[in-house]
User: Fold this.
Amino acid sequence: MGKLDGKIGLITGGSDGIGFATAQHFLNEGAAHVFIIGRRQDALNEAIKKLGNKKVTAIQSDTSNLNDLDKLFDTIKNKQGHLDPNHSVYAATKAALRSFARTWTVDLKERKIRVNTLSPGPIDTPGLRKATNNEEQRKQMYASLASGTVMGHVGTADEIAKAAVFLPMSKITATGSRRKEAGKPPDPAGKQRK
Assistant:
């Protein structure tokens, strides 16, 4: 039994290097299906040949292009119905953004520019809803995500927007800080410095 039995994965840059090796390992660990994406179709075609497995779909896509992302998730939904999100990649991306914010805080302080980040937990968004094929799968996924949060629920975009409004308030001097939001925003009145 593999560590990824039955899982459906998406690997960016899957045509070579780390992405290709990751696709190989996903397959070796029992993934039900692996989608690999990259910008060059010729490289993707070569990767499919090397992997030699019918459980792989290669999709030419530029992840910085929103239209490409829509096509990508439509293809995933049509072929497999859903995707099992790779939380470790998501977490690493958030960590990189926090690192940028800390660096920018130092670089921009003389110009009186404050830099902060919001690190929301799972948030009910159209993108998250697209990760499942039907309402029953969505309920199961949301219950699983909610169980891993302090507040015990999946947050809303509105809750995060309220927390974002808090940071640029003129009476707030926070900079270089990270707000970890898992649903309910802080009470701005209770966080202001006198």
User: Anything to note?
Assistant: The chain has eight helices and seven strands.
